[in-house]
Design brief:
This protein is mainly alpha-helical. The protein has twelve helices and no strands. The protein is elongated. Bound molecules: iron/sulfur cluster (SF4).
């Protein structure tokens, strides 16, 4: 049900007007043009730094993580340094990112595993990355896509919301959303797709008050001008994510 006022001359997208892969391709092209500067927001100089930064970014803004990591990496620069750190000193260094006790534990365990099982290197496969403490599919896909050039769909809160509003997925579970998106977008575009959706989610399609009137994909979006009838974050899902982050496991 459309609850917002539809501008004169606007033709809402009719479900099934285009094959889904074609609609996905058009959405990607338009977002690519609109957000030509889209890229990962976390600063890093190596796969290892990106791993630590991504763990810190759970329930925290990327901007805050970028403030914390330069000092952190001056103090602890290798997996060995982190593995040898005490909980208290690491907690003090990452405190402002929130959930710092659990994050410190996860980073120390993760780095211990890097040293013991992977020769101090960040592994390059989803399967191996998922063995690390604090690493879930989202973090693994961030690593694969941005550190190793292996396409991955990292489903964060923006990607999840946009996938639902654009109706590329009806799911709320991030893994199911990832697989739904992977079925309609070409693999080569997966990593950039995430940057574009995150950028669009921050600037245009915000959780509250999406700016459908200025959205470049509004004619391809089944949710255009329906704000008010869209279910916002499922509170159960939201609680699950917070609890997972507090438990040190990214989704
Ligand atoms: S801003 Fe509106 S039209 Fe654009 S993706 Fe979000 S819900 Fe759809």
């Amino acid at each position: 049900m459309r609850t917002a006022k539809i501008p004169e001359g606007f033709h809402p997208y009719k479900k099934g007007s285009l094959p889904e892969k074609e609609r996905a391709g058009k959405v990607f092209t338009l977002l690519r043009k609109e957000h030509s500067d889209a890229k990962i927001a976390l600063n890093f100089n190596s796969p290892f730094e990106l791993l630590v930064a991504t763990i810190l970014s759970a329930q925290c803004t990327d901007a805050r993580v970028n403030i914390v990591t330069p000092g952190l990496f001056r103090k602890f620069s290798t997996p060995e340094d982190f593995a040898a750190a005490s909980n208290a000193e690491l907690e003090a260094a990452i405190r402002s990112t929130g959930f710092y006790r659990q994050k410190a534990k996860s980073i120390i365990k993760c780095c211990t595993s890097l040293v013991v099982n992977f020769g101090g290197q960040v592994p390059r496969t989803m399967e191996e990355l998922l063995t690390l403490d604090g690493v879930g599919r989202k973090t693994a896909n961030v690593l694969l896509g941005n550190a190793f050039g292996v396409p991955g769909i990292a489903v964060d809160t923006h990607v999840s919301r946009l996938a639902q509003r654009l109706r590329f997925s009806k799911q709320t579970d991030p893994t199911k959303i990832e697989f739904d998106m992977a079925a309609v977008f070409p693999k080569k575009d997966w990593t950039m797709l995430c940057h574009l959706l995150m950028s669009h989610g921050r600037k245009v399609c915000a959780a509250r008050n999406p700016k459908c009137d200025v959205c470049v994909v509004n004619t391809l979006c089944p949710s255009a001008f329906t704000f008010g009838s869209i279910r916002q974050h499922n509170t159960k899902e939201s609680r699950r994510r917070k609890s997972k982050a507090a438990g040190g496991k990214s989704y």
